[in-house]
Design brief:
By secondary structure, this protein is α+β, with helices and mostly antiparallel strands. It has 3 domains: 3-162, Beta-Lactamase, CATH 3.30.450; 169-305, Beta-Lactamase (2-Layer Sandwich), CATH 3.30.450; 322-475, Reverse transcriptase/Diguanylate cyclase domain (Alpha-Beta Plaits, 2-Layer Sandwich). The chain is 44% helix and 24% strand. The relative contact order is 0.06.
Length: 476
């Protein structure tokens, strides 16, 4: 066996790189060294070590500390045993020679220094020794791992294995983690915490902002993000928001949502110092990286509270804009909004049955001219109150100075005839008693006839004027 192939790689070792686990089954297997006869006890020790160290190894070496001679073993293809691949007179000298030929240039100096006899023995007196390095095979570097241990005071046992696939995955993962760390540092001013999650293994890295600066620091390396988040939620999330978050952070549901949405976002309340604080969670998959998810947690309490106040103020303003200031019922603007929505439903063929009631206060001009506008306003308010009492389940609108409209739906629509009779009878009594009164008319929506709400309104308006004329004749 040429010295150029010792420790680093042999032809048979390279061929056995994917061989099955090795164990020495026959106690009688012996290694016949050129200069040293092995005892039964030493055989026993070697066999035991071979069985424990040879699993998945491409080569194992049995080295004499006394004279540096060695024997190299490799897995016997197709069998659960070892076979001799090479012998040598000086393991440490051969290692230096072969390192110059096969070890990757960047790893060569470290490799040779680590395997100098004195240094290796010093290390092995304290513990076992491991070394990762690269070999150049077929013009490309492959990652290998070496493990050495002392079997007794006279021998060293060394195992070498190919770890290229595993190591490259770890290198790629570390590169991704480093890239993410740099990105996370750039986002430190925006986020309180950032999580980098492997969706396959569920392992995660948690970054948080330091107390004294705006830089992100690694706080936690975790094994499973979703169980970690679910457990913490029980103690930190506002009770009203907890059920929704627990449901959304179920693994299948969460991954499905993140896959569907470009950016998944959820606002919730976190209990901080006994007070609810609005937080926002944003989750996204990095472009070109299907195995990972990034989650950013930001404090949005101030902005969310401002937004809620703005919505409240806007709602109040909108309510004021669509409310009649004198009576408190909906105004002409609100009626126009209802009209547009109903017209859309009529056009689409999805409008349910409804009716319109039109009411007009009798002789308001005379009241204003003789008794004053204050009395006229009180008359309008009184008339509106009576309309609201009769039509409890439908929107009432003041669409003019003394004119009201009611869009009857639901129960009021079902009882419309009885309600109209009752209202007209009451207004007739009030007119007879000299009190302000209303004239009212009603019309039903007819699908085959009416193209828009105005068609129904016009018939109701005509019915109202007919009622007004009748009331005047009775007064005379």
């Amino acid at each position: 066996m040429s010295r150029s192939k010792a420790i680093i790689c042999t032809a048979s070792a390279a061929a056995a790189a994917t061989a099955v686990k090795v164990a020495l089954k026959k106690r009688g297997t012996a290694v016949r060294h050129k200069k040293t006869d092995e005892t039964g006890s030493r055989d026993m020790t070697f066999t035991r070590l071979a069985r424990s160290l040879a699993s998945d190894y491409t080569s194992v070496y049995y080295i004499s500390i006394t004279d540096n001679s060695y024997v190299e073993y490799v897995p016997k293809e197709g069998e659960d045993s070892l076979t001799i691949a090479s012998r040598g007179d000086d393991f440490f000298a051969d290692t230096v020679i072969n390192a110059g030929k096969l070890v990757y240039e960047e790893d060569r100096e470290r490799f040779v220094a680590s395997l100098r006899k004195e240094k290796l023995l010093d290390t092995l007196c304290k513990s076992s020794f491991t070394l990762d390095y690269r070999l150049v095979l077929e013009d490309r570097p492959l990652y290998y791992n070496l493990k050495a241990t002392m079997t007794d005071k006279e021998h060293i046992f060394v195992g070498v294995r190919n770890v290229d696939i595993q190591t490259r995955r770890e290198v790629e993962e570390n590169q991704r983690n480093e890239t993410f760390r740099k990105i996370a540092e750039g986002l430190a001013s925006r986020y309180e915490a950032i999580y980098y999650i492997n969706t396959v293994t569920e392992k995660f890295i948690e970054y948080v902002v330091g107390d004294q600066n705006e830089k992100l620091h690694t706080k936690k390396l975790g094994e499973s993000f979703l169980p970690f988040a679910s457990e913490n939620m029980k103690y930190e999330i506002h009770p009203d928001d907890l059920p929704l978050l627990q449901k959304q952070l179920q693994k299948e549901s969460f991954l499905s949502t993140v896959n569907t949405d470009d950016v998944y976002t959820q606002t919730y309340r976190l209990i901080c110092d006994g007070k609810p604080t609005y937080m926002n969670m944003r989750a996204v998959r990095p472009i070109g990286n299907e195995e990972h998810i990034i989650i950013g947690i930001s404090n949005v309490d101030s902005s969310t509270r401002r937004e809620l106040e703005a919505k409240k103020a806007l709602g109040t303003a909108m309510s004021m804009a669509t409310r009649d200031s004198l009576t408190g019922v909906k105004n002409k603007m609100s009626y126009s909004q209802y009209e547009a929505e109903i017209n859309r439903k009529i056009s689409d063929g999805g409008m349910n049955d409804f009716s319109i009631v039109v009411c007009d206060l009798n002789e308001l001009k005379m009241i204003n001219d003789t008794l004053g506008h204050n009395v006229g306003d009180e008359s309008i308010k009184g008339a509106c109150a009576e309309i609201c009492k009769k039509f409890k389940h439908s929107p009432v609108f003041r669409i003019g100075g003394d004119e009201f409209a009611v869009i009857l739906v639901g129960e009021d629509h079902f009882n419309r005839r009885n309600i109209i009779r009752s209202l007209r009878a009451q207004m007739s009594r009030q007119r007879s008693d000299g009190k302000p009164s209303l004239a009212c008319g009603i019309a039903d929506f007819e699908r085959e006839r009416d193209l828009e709400l105005a068609d129904v309104f016009n018939r109701a308006d005509m019915d109202m004027y007919s009622n007004k004329k009748k009331m005047k004749r009775r007064r005379v």
